[in-house]
Every structure is written in C-alpha cells, then in structure tokens.
Amino acid sequence: MTAPNSSPITPIEIAMVIYPDAQCLDITGPLEVFALANRQLREDGRRSDDVYRITLLAEEAGPVCMSSSIRLIADRSYRDAGDLDTLLVSGGMGESARRLQDDAKFTAWLKRQATSVRRLGSICSGALILASAGLLTGRRATTHWSDVEALRGFPEVEVDPDAIYVRDSHVYTSAGITSGIDLALALVEEDLVAPWR
Prior knowledge:
CATH architecture: 3-Layer(aba) Sandwich
Structural class: alpha/beta
Low-confidence stretches: 1-8
Number of strands: 11
Helix content: 25-40%
C-alpha cells in the first residue's frame, strides 16, 4: 500500500454481510467509518479517489429488512462477492441469524473467504456466525455481552467477555453494536496510519 498522499492505490474492498433482522447500527456504524475516511482524505487534498469501496452482501441482491424495519439494499448476493480485502459479518437477532449459522452453503462460502481475504471480522453477535462456521476455533474472540454465554457454547473459542474488540491473526470480533465502530477505526488505522509511524 502506498502512502495516502502518493499515487492512487486500488480501492480496498470492504464487504458487510447483512440479513433480515440484522442490527442496522452494526452495519451502518462501521461502514460510515470507512466512508468518512474516504471523504476526509479527499477534503484534506491527500487523495482524489476512494481508499475504500464498500459493498453490502446478502442472500440475494436487493432490499433487506433490518430489525428496526429500515431496509438496506444489498449490492449483490454473497455468492457473487468477487475479490474482497475485508469481509465483515453483521450482528442480528432472531431466526434469520440462526438460519445463517446453519446454512451449509453460506458457512462453506465463509470458510473459503477466510482463506482469501486479508481480514475477516464480525460485529456484535455476528461472532456466533463465525463460530458456527468453525472460523473462531482456537481463537480468542468477543461478542455482545448478552451473547457471551452462547459464544461460550463453542468450547474451542477463547471468549473474552470484556474486550471492545479482539484481533486474533487476521480474524477480528467486536462486542456490542457501537463497538463495531471502534473496530472499524482500528482497521482504518492499520491501513492508513500505522504503516507510516
């Protein structure tokens, strides 16, 4: 990656998996961090293009109703995701999240992505989806306080109930809802600040 004030780099592909009854703030909070980084670098005259390209993925492209009844528009199906740099899984409640955990095609796709993306992460209860896919096996992880016991149901996961976010190799998990913003800020720091310290 080149410094922000040098020649343009290929945009960093950030994708978020969404599903019915996901928490809207789990999605929009972290993604606004990446969008703000794009805007701030342009306004500061450090870039003329976007560092981050943001994509919403779902079972199918189109509107997806969140737990708040707000509808977000998925850009494409997760099956058509293409090459990604960073893949995040949103948190949510109810049957849709549980169905995703049990969806063999989706979890197989997640496992394949885990071997090709630079970073894989979850926001809030999205950690349960990663754990169901076996992607937190042997790793330290966190989640929303109300889902800590459910995550402890995966004995191969070392659960840290007090962390805002956890990085274990290239896999990241964050605690409840707005802590996804903290995680996104840390990812932006990795990309745009830490390399030039």
